[in-house]
């Protein structure tokens, strides 16, 4: 990073207040690859590096540097408050407020908040990064931008949310009232009139605005619609009969399966599609077997077949036997026999159940796998 020009409020980050007409390299950032940089008119600067670190410096009268103080930042300093273990991928500066986007799609904001541009639901200034939630709580943001006192976020389904100053209607909400929390720009959704049934169902998955039920797995919530679950799954159709307690609940706890597996299952009910690595597909195969979801079972077997390797072959074979997936079992068995020398040297081979190992050796022997 090179800087030059007027050094108002130490915005050049050189550690002093001296302006320069010659580009100067910021040595403190040496060796780091910059992925996003933004300049606020305060002026203050935010910068994100390839490893997800966030740096800030410059004007800080409203805590827009996110360090909990109002001291000027004369040189780049890491912003870590409330962002530990978070990887920042994009930054945006308003005149005196700041935003950051993480690789998981979370939006954080801080600094001056006179018009609600931090999205906290109030107009109190925010001294450290705070996650922008409410309507963005279960959304995955893919891009952010700030104007002087307004903020916008684009989420992965194409929706745009805006908050902050709206005196001239710049948030596109059809009014000119300031917004203290994110609001969806409905005028950009006219194309929704032409969505297919499949597209509409996919869009509504995990949508708290339209859901009538929450499923809690590992302490995390997934928002769903009882009608969709009853139409798509016999297990849920039985669950929501009037004589089941679950029919009257607004939140149902699920403890038999992991969050990632159960989320993939619910997403399958909405989209008829599964996207998982082979190792995770084993857990989903377990669920599909328990819920008698034969189509899902076939999809899981297909994923496992595509992802089978020498290292995981015996784990996959064990899963196929355990969940009575005969076609997958035969596929994994043949793979193991065809790569017998390699797979018998893996840790998975020696960790499988003794009875399964005996059965494999007997079957492989009948196939002539141990002939010279």
Automatic annotation (TrEMBL):
Protein name: Regulator of chromosome condensation (RCC1) and BTB (POZ) domain containing protein 1
Chain ranges of the BTB domain: 211-278
Gene that this sequence comes from: RCBTB1
PROSITE patterns from the UniProt entry: BTB, RCC1_2, RCC1_3
Lineage: Eukaryota, Metazoa, Chordata, Craniata, Vertebrata
Superkingdom of origin: Eukaryota
SMART domains reported for this sequence: BTB
Repeat positions for RCC: 1-50, 52-104, 105-157, 158-198
Repeat listed as a keyword: yes
